[in-house]
Amino acid sequence: MNMFLLAAETDPVAKAVESLLSNISGFQRLTAQEFSGIDFGSEDVLLLGENGTSNELISQAELPSVGMIQNIGCTPSPALLANASRSELQVIVAGISPNIAPRVANRVIGFTGPLTVRPLPDWGVIGVGEVGVEVVKKALATRSSVGIAEIRTPRSGLLTELGVRRHSLDLLVAGSDVITIHVHAGSTTSPLISDRELRLMKSDAVLINTSSSSVVDESAVIEALERGEIAGYATDCPGDAISTADESLAASGKLIVTTNPLTNQIGAPQQLAKYILANAEAFKSKSTVRGIYEPIDFPTIGDPSFWSSRMSPRQD
Q1: CATH number, residue 173
Q2: Number of folded domains that form the chain
């Protein structure tokens, strides 16, 4: 098995990965120019950063004929996931969600402070993959009630294990005090939360987004905040509309934005590097690879999500 790393020179996780793997036989860090000339094999692993160059190469090229692509950043390229779902190659595409989930959940809970959420709110968690499940557990630990929305039937026993109920997206949005989104960007989430869903929310409810700026209509969010139709919005993945929003929204406490990536937190790059190596070794030994992305699927009639708004694959 060979391991190839394609990421920006400034990527802290890539630096930690290179430090950990530099003495391992078969490891090579690639430049963008070298990437196109590599003859990948079905036993090889590509460690892929989320910088613009990596995403651009994956968008323009056919899916590399590696055995596994391990995304090393928080957000997978939608083009990569789309290519993987269309490709005839049997390529495993995995992410870092199992490792980063507790940090995401802590950030989500942390947002509720400056948003001045009422005590013991009703939570609505959209997407129950690794991250969503961790958020559910953290919210339940605060003695709040929690409901979830998911595109497909969650794994057997999960809802009983967590002690939560599943709702359609519309019912969840309409009945929750805190709505938090944990899905991938993609064709079914462009956007997932639009003006329609925002109008379903309670006027004192808040929306939290740690997924992607594309999964919400940011312009509609700003208008809803200005009209008082929702009480607050918090995100660590702002797009242009939020980044250029009137400063009065932030000053009023209605808009909370952080641009500090969770992968930059102290100890996170080294922890992620160990996880990434363990996942590559699991692939090599044909044991369980963690964080595999699932292709987009749609609910069938009778499924609670069938009559709801647009949904996305869960973040596993």
Answers
A1: 3.40.50.720
A2: 2
